Every structure is written in structure tokens, then in C-alpha cells.
Amino acid sequence: MRRRDFFKETAAELNRAIGLLKDLEDGAAELDELLDELPKDESKPQIASKIHKLHALLSKLKKTSKNLV
Q1: What secondary structure letter does DSSP report for 1?
Q2: Is residue 69 very low, low, confident or very high in pLDDT (cuts 50, 70, 90)?
Q3: What span, in angstroms and rounded, lies between the C-alpha atoms of 1 and 17?
Q4: Which pTM does this prediction carry?
Q5: Which of 57, 67, 52, 69 is nearest to 27 (CA)?
Q6: What are the Cα distances from residue 25, in Å, to 33, 49, 66?
């Protein structure tokens, strides 16, 4: 391709976007693992509920990023 070819720039931007999506997916997976490590304190159901909501949100983010790649 020529140096100033439009497709070269487009390919570079697409590669950058894919890299960002992979970083998002990796970060979501790491957060998911950290949430799994939190102690399960049954005496505080509101905390357990929030952890469950965070897992659900992270799962949604992972699915979205996979659909975009």
C-alpha cells in the first residue's frame, strides 16, 4: 500500500480499536476474578447482591466486546 493510502490508516485504527476491546475484556475478566475472591459474608445480603450485580455487568461487557471483535 502507498504511504498515504486511506486503507492503511483505517487498518491502523481498527487494530487500535480491537486492542482496546481486548484490554476491556481482560480487565473485566480480572475484575470478575477479584470479585470471586471476596469473602461471602451471608450476614450482609446487600453486599452479596451488589457483588452479583457486578458479576452480571461484567458478563454483559464481556459479551459486548466479543460481539464487536
Answers
A1: -
A2: low
A3: 21
A4: 0.61
A5: 57
A6: 12, 23, 8
